[in-house]
Every structure is written in C-alpha cells, then in structure tokens.
Predict the structure.
Amino acid sequence: MTITWEWRGGFTNDEVNRLHAEGFEHAYFDDDWNGMLSRLSLGWVVARDDDGLVGFVNVIWDGQIHAFIEDTLVAGRVRHQGVGKRLIAVATEEARAAGCEWLHVDFDDELKAFYFGACGFRPTNAGLIQLR
C-alpha cells in the first residue's frame, strides 16, 4: 500500500465528513469543508492510498506568525503506521515555509504520546474556557 501526502490537496466534503465522523466518533455531518478551509485556513494536508482519503489535518492561522493544528484525522484501517506523524510533519514544514514562527496544538490526554513523543511538540501553559 502506497500513501501519498499533499499540502492543500484536493478532497470532497463527503470524504472529510466521513473521516471526521470516524475519527471523532460522531454522526455524519454535511459540513462544507471546502468553504470553511478556503476562508479560515493557511492550508491542510491530505493523505491518500489506493482506496481514498486516509488522513487529514487542518492548519488554521492568525495571518501572521501563529499557526494551529486542528482536526487531525487518520482512518482506522491505517492507524499506527505513521500516517498521523507524517501529516503533522508536512503541516509543520508548510507552516514554517509560510513564515509562521509558532505551531500550536491542543488535545486530549490520551494523545500526549503522539503529539509530544512522535511529533515533537513540547508542553506549555495554556488556558481554555468552555463556551457551551
């Protein structure tokens, strides 16, 4: 199986909606990912194999020096094969190339080993207010 990664690669809304539902274990939503990303994102990375979309990560930004990882998704059938790590590596390279100085991510505790160990993020102080 060959997997390819592409910065700002093409995708359909249906592909990302299905992967998002699988990755975050929720019902399928009919979100307009193409519209949202074109307005809000520095870019995104797609990973594909012969059967379709197997990985996705969104990189949002402040338009200057801060970029933020959102919606890191890997299809269950290819998890634990380095797909997520490569998604983040491509996102990091492209955010740096765009002139960003900082790449932020927040995540649930069970993903510490992935983000800190596999991807090279370091712990920092941060804050959060739940709005709903």
